[in-house]
Amino acid sequence: MKKLLLPIVLLAIAAGAAMYFWTQSRGGAEAATAVPGMPATTGATGAAAGKKTARVIPEVLPDFTLATLEGPPRALSSYQHPSLIVNFWATWCAPCRREIPLLRQLRAERGARGVEVLGIAVDFREDVEKYVAKIGLDYPLMIGEEDGLAAADAFGIDPAFPFTVFADAQRRIVAVKVGELHADEAAFILDHIELLNAGRLPLKEVQSLIRTELQRLEALRTEKPA
Description:
Layout: H1 2-25, E1 33-34, E2 39-40, H2 46-50, E3 55-56, E4 65-68, E5 73-75, E6 83-89, H3 94-110, E7 115-122, H4 125-135, E8 141-144, H5 146-153, E9 163-167, E10 173-178, H6 183-197, H7 203-223
Parallel strand pairs: 6-7, 7-8
Antiparallel strand pairs: 1-10, 2-3, 4-5, 4-8, 6-9, 9-10
Helix pairs in contact: 6-7
């Protein structure tokens, strides 16, 4: 039964993701990032958005346990780092696959500064194992089918892969990027999480700065000619 149910759910997610990227291409830059305590959307605006029940991103990382690439289950709370990047993805998702080199680069360049990357693959385990064996992956990976969908739901994000969560040393969710993550966005977020961890800027100011900058960067990308 589970094997029959998951493909249907994943198909619905893929359709939702396609709609998200279509709205982004039509100028939906406001959906590029979200912060805790505010409704999380994926590009819906106007009356259609008003009819939808708003979902709120939690202020701190939720905890859950999923299988790891190595097999034994592990809790999200066991990853204790000054800056944690939690990336939800799937093997069938093209933007997810494009993000992987950037995530590897971020871990390589910023690992010594306390940054850890955690991938959460919402997909069939055999598909994930095959894909990882093909490309190589040097950051921790958790895998879940229905459990992975429940983990994604705990972040208050409507189904749309990829999405990436950034948390500080206190496990507070600083920002959520829905859609493909870009190097300039990641650098800005992580630089400001460092300032937050050092006590040089308060959380609300950091969140506001990140939201404004990601909207600006997304608008610039949208304006570029095809």
